[in-house]
Amino acid sequence: MAGEHDRPVHALEEAADVRLDYGTLTPLIKRLETHGLLKRQRRADDERVVEVALTPEGAALRRRISNVPVAIGDAMGLTPEEIRTAQDLLRRLTANATRRPADATRRPAGAEPSGTAS
Asked: Which residue among 7, 46, 49, 88 is buried most deeply as judged by most CB within 10 Å?
């Protein structure tokens, strides 16, 4: 998230990266800012753009929790390859579930409508 690359990042890009709507991410950003973990600022060359960056406290917290994803992976009992496969499938599921309604009615060429396969 913010500051992973040791530079301020565009809040809209962060929303896309974590697959959250900007309206959902904004209260989270405000809460993190209130707790002193990140700072928000408008870009000088384009005040429509809000950038977020970790504060020193936020960077310290990120370092302290950096092992959490590994611990979660260990607790799941999956190999790294299985974790990547699960992530890919979940991303696909999310993309399919969030498609526009018009896209949802399309079937791949040669696919039979639901319930017609024998």
From this structure: 49
Written as one letter, the residue type at 48 is: R
- pLDDT tens sequence across 43-53: 888 888 888 88
CA distances from 81 to 18, 95, 101, 114 (A): 22, 21, 33, 32
- Report the C-alpha dihedral over residues 94, 100, 103, 105, rounded to 10 degrees: 90
What's the whole-number average pLDDT of the chain? 78
38 Cβ neighbours under 8 A, 6+ residues apart: 2, 3, 29, 32, 52, 53, 54, 55, 58
Give strand pairing partners of 9: 52
Residue with tokens 């979660």: 72
Beta strands in the chain (DSSP E): 9-10, 38-43, 46-54
